[in-house]
Task: structure prediction
Amino acid sequence: MPSAFTDTAASDSGQPPPARRSVLGAMAAAAAAPALLGLSTQPASAAPVKPLALPGGGDLGPNVIVFDPSTPGIQARLDQVFAQQESAQFGTGRYQFLFKPGTYNGLNAQLGFYTSISGLGLSPDDTSINGDITVDAGWFGGNATQNFWRSAENLAITPVNGTNRWAVAQAAPFRRMHVRGGLNLSPNGYGWASGGYIADSRVDGTVGPYSQQQWYTRDSFVGGWLNAVWNMVFSGVEGAPAQTFPSPPYTTLNTTPISREKPFLYLNGTEYRVFLPEKRVNSRGTTWGAGTPRGTSLALTQFYVAKPGVTAATLNEALTQGLHLLLTPGIYHLDRPIQVNRANTVVLGLGYATLIPDNGVTALKVADVDGVRLAGFLIDAGPVNSATLLEVGPTGASANHSVNPTTVQDVFIRIGGAGAGKATTSMVVNSRNTIIDHTWVWRADHGAGVGWETNRADYGVRVNGNDVLATGLFVEHFNKYDVQWYGQGGRTIFFQNEKAYDAPNQAAIQNGAIKGYAAYKVADTVTTHEAWGMGSYCYYNVDPTILQHHGFATPVNANVKFHNIMVISLGGQGQYERVINDTGSPTSGNTTVPSVVVNFP
Result:
């Protein structure tokens, strides 16, 4: 039986991996050639010495703030960052808090925008906070619908009053957490909320969504679940409520077909490493409850630790050397794509590290290779239109990656909001078997640089590869289709969408003879597809008379299946005529009551 924990400091051949070999080779060369140490013994005519390769490892930069239980002033530092980030929705601050294993007492870590908090143990229970990790909405009058871009991972918390408040919206993952008590997903005063995502977590008490409009929970344990508003979806969750959609609107799958948890930074003694959880099939419950999680580990010295200001050319050189990328918090401007060509490469962001393509390039491209892991960063469209912002696999990719898929986890894309941005298609997935595990792809409806043509973005996500799985797919406000699915064998568990608010009139969204572009379109050539727990909402506040024919469009085929889907008109600002194709009742008036279809066909 294989070990539950494998150190991958050496390759399968028994030799150090490429990054380690380059370092060892440089050390050997230095020992043999004093010139490399600045003690030249060569004649003046000798050929110049090739510079040392880019180093792996190093410090994590000023915006990664590390605590241990003896650190003085932890609460003051948490409060200082929160005061800066609480309402900085489109600011440039980026922060990552890391807590070394141990016990911390009396803390309340309030999280603002672009702030991540994580433990550094192999298990959440290695790092215990007797206190709270709080997200509330006082900055926005008790409305939590804009509490985006923050995260909590790999910690155990014992809330002071027995229940922790986590009132978030999109792009705010709660991963690998142990709540020794209950979890309240609504803001103080039970104002509006529009989240969210939980994975690989245990909540000993009851989860109370209260005002949360929708939520997806994957591979976790909950001691109870209080209520549902529009769309609550569970896969592989012990303690989840039974399947009862549409009343109450619970969609419950006993297992998740395929999952592989997000990579995470941890400490092995005093050494930083990155843990890579293994793939699970038909998974249920957490990966860590029975002890050491199963997977492999990489030393930080196998990563190029990137800092804001580094060029795309340097990042690509690091990848060419065989290093992985650790993106420390900050803004990274790119004049060319980051190109991931090597199988099993990890690109991991801390503290919402943000990639901005400045001149219309694609921010990141992945070759048609096995096992790439993209996790924990934001891509912000630049002012010059990009044809795409993220490409997973080149056009025509066809290799089978079922044994070792690529994963895209907590990778978020934004067009506008922080300034004018444009992209024709935000995310394109060409590689087979890719797992998209929690993304929010968002054409901004508020902030700077927002307008029907100002932040033009016709398409959100396009899936061309076969056998792609999406778990937790949030895609909103695109000028045309939000999701287009061309690959065979695709599956989506949980989808949340709002159509673009700012369409100026009916003509602007007319799709040939059809009124409006579907939120989720399965191509007519597709013969196998399945989706569960899907919602599309409209709020055409510029022209409330706009009619959207349907939220979902699909070929009619016994092997193309939709379960538990809905459309909603928010306050009567625009209406849907049908739910899927020509099936389902229209929305009506300003009642904000879902129109549902339980199964199609």
About this structure: Residues 18-32 form the longest helix (15 residues).
